[in-house]
Amino acid sequence: xxxxxxxxxxxxxxxxxxxxxxxxxxxxxxxxxxxxxxxxxxxxxxxxxxxxxxxxxxxxxxxxxxxxxxxxxxxxxxxxxxxxxxxxxxxxxxxxxxxxxxxxxxxxxxxxxxxxxxxxxxxxxxxxxxxxxxxxxxxxxxxxxxxxxxxxxxxxxxxxxxxxxxxxxxxxxxxxxxxxxxxxxxxxxxxxxxxxxxxxxxxxxxxxxxxxxxxxxxxxxxxxxxxxxxxxxxxxxxxxxxxxxxxxxxxxxxxxxxxxxxxxxxxxxxxxxxxxxxxxxxxxxxxxxxxxxxxxxxxxxxxxxxxxxxxxxxxxxxxxxxxxxxxxxxxxxxxxxxxxxxxxxxxxxxxxxxxxxxxxxxxxxxxxxxxxxxxxxxxxxxxxxxxxxxxxxxxxxxxxxxxxxxxxxxxxxxxxxxxxxxxxxxxxxxxxxxxxxxxxxxxxxxxxxxxxxxxxxxx
Length: 459
Fold this sequence. Notes:
Shape: globular
CATH architecture: Orthogonal Bundle
Number of strands: 2
Order of helices and strands: HHHHHEEHHHHHHHHHHHHH
CATH class: Mainly Alpha
Strand content: under 5%
CATH topology: Hydantoin permease
Number of helices: 18
């Protein structure tokens, strides 16, 4: 390990955890980095599509998806804070079969992530379509190349954190705009009544072609997804949570620091969960109220899909809201792309190190790999979008298909979380009854949906 390496634990970086909520708020951030990627694919695309095709009846899917996965996320976070290990370093310690130098879970992730290119390929495709609608004189493929170049440059340069903060601020404005639309909806002929809400809490799934794929896909990418749970550890480590705790020397001081920074992580993760759950429900209610039963929603191309989404705002706020929607949609989709790329470059570099391609802890080699991937991955997203467009698939279908695979990735994540939790039994870092109930409830629900996903995939 080398100097200035965020993944190296150094006693000189030890800091006591803040004891007040105000002090803790200064250290929040990792959960909101995930939120920047959740809004684009989860809320704007998957949630509204689910509401448009299934109506209020599946609101329970949205609520369960947002609420149950955070306990698993916390278990991954605890592992990172207590050990300083990256996600794949931790996965490599799991019991079970090894293939070559790496644990089977790492190879499973590498395989499943191939299908995740569909999801982000759909995202960059939608950004290109949005830009083409704004400036039709430039073709979609030229805009696609520009989007790929911009995303790659942002992550390659290392300045994407600044733009990410700006995007989070703009997403916040767009979210407020969404709530205004939801309030305005109540003064139209399509106002939501209590019966609509109650009908969505009956754990029913409407019949229809492709409905299971849609429900499972939405479950996978609304809230924090399996791949985002795995990415959370990198943001925790780079934020300094593990370094602040230091190496586990078995002392009471280390235990105190670990408990303190785990408490800060709880605030970070739960606060982010509350925010994205409220936002997700708002998008879902708008989609269900305004788009459900609309003829032609599933027809046409990406332009038609985006025009339908703009109706979530123009139908309630008036025609003036159309341009605001398109600007907001661009921001959330574009921020999703570069947030995902920031995570993917770290995850793939870590995974490649584990399977023996290079030494992940050689900081210069690691950074070179990340820089190279910052160009390769977006190009692959673009190629996947072009290929699927040639096959006649819309970007929203690509996003939902990626969400379906995310539900399967959750099974790998779940297995790891259960093992990590079992290993904590011999440590002084314990959890209370509320957490136990939340964790095992999450296990049951994710296991159910994950196995369901696999059975549907092989039918």
